[in-house]
Design goal:
The chain contains six helices and four strands; from the N terminus they run αααααββββα. With about 190 residues, it is α+β, with helices and mostly antiparallel strands. The radius of gyration is 20 Å and the shape is elongated.
Length: about 190
């Protein structure tokens, strides 16, 4: 009886340790998938449908705030806002791809259009680093990592959620300087 109890305690500790280390394991696997440009491996660790919904809400909120700030000065804001849904779709689709996530974590903006010229920092590929990061558990099933990047003023916050005993990337709080606003400004 004592052996069974000891075995159950050991197994419970091992399972809890694995779940606690899960976010770090997942981030290392995401980083490895980005470095090797293996989108199939990346897909295993990113919940793309949930990430797409979360980013769409975030970008919509950003554009509503931008438009609200300009609404007093410009009567064309309402017309421009009617075009933002397609712009938001394009931005979210650019971010929610293996290449878009890699660009964002490297500190670069994903390209919105195929013929778009690369930004000056595209030539220097900087791999995402887990050094100098902050992290925090938000309960038993949510975990945040703040990554520092060279090219952005704000840290990128990655939110991982536990699904069973596995962890997946479900949200990226993108710095506001990563959201391409030149298209909205051109509409206004």
């Amino acid at each position: 009886m004592k052996k069974i109890t000891t075995l159950l305690v050991v197994l419970s500790i091992l399972l809890l340790s694995y779940v606690a280390a899960g976010p770090f394991i997942t981030m290392n696997r995401i980083q490895a998938a980005i470095e090797t440009k293996d989108s199939e491996k990346l897909t295993k660790h990113v919940d793309f449908p949930v990430l797409r919904v979360n980013l769409k809400e975030q970008v919509n909120d950003f554009f509503m705030k931008e438009a609200g700030a300009q609404s007093d000065d410009n009567p064309w804001v309402a017309l421009a806002l009617s075009f933002t849904s397609s712009l938001v779709e394009r931005i979210v689709e650019a971010f929610v791809t293996p290449e878009g996530i890699a660009k964002l974590l490297e500190g670069d903006k994903p390209k919105l259009y195929e013929n778009e010229k690369p930004t000056p920092n595209n030539s220097k590929q900087t791999k995402p680093s887990l050094k100098n990061t902050r992290f925090k558990y938000h309960g038993f099933s949510e975990f945040s990592i703040w990554l520092k990047t060279k090219n952005q003023k704000e840290d990128i916050q990655l939110i991982l959620s536990r699904q069973g005993i596995k962890w997946k990337l479900t949200n990226i709080i993108i710095p506001t300087d990563s959201i391409p606003t030149n298209t909205l400004t051109a509409l206004l």
